[in-house]
Amino acid sequence: MAINNIAMNAYKSALQDANKIVGQKSFEKSDEPGGSHNTFANTIKDSLAKVNGLEEQKAGLIESFASGENQNVHELMISLQKASIAMSMTSAVRGKVMEAYREVMRMQF
């Protein structure tokens, strides 16, 4: 069935793109001197870089779709959803961190 092939191709493409992003990040980590990669700050930086990568990928796909270079709607929609979910998760984490900060500031010693 043709629809299944299109969906499967979009899924494979999204999976390859995700592997590229993960591969780039793991390569960048191996170049850094030292060994303290598991800090909270590094985890936040890596997560924000991944979200930024998804946003850039989304913008690129929208641009290529609008210009007519790429007409794969499934790939575009998957990319839009991935970027949206990543951004909403980032916003939720930010909200929880700010809530924790305010709670600590209200503590009396």
From TrEMBL:
Organism domain of life: Bacteria
Location of this chain's protein in the cell: Bacterial flagellum basal body
Lineage of source species: Bacteria, Pseudomonadati, Thermodesulfobacteriota, Desulfovibrionia, Desulfovibrionales
Main location: other
Protein name: Flagellar hook-basal body complex protein FliE
UniProt family annotation: Belongs to the FliE family.
Pfam families: FliE (PF02049)
Gene Ontology terms: biological process: bacterial-type flagellum-dependent cell motility
Keyword annotations of the record: Bacterial flagellum, Cell projection, Cilium, Flagellum
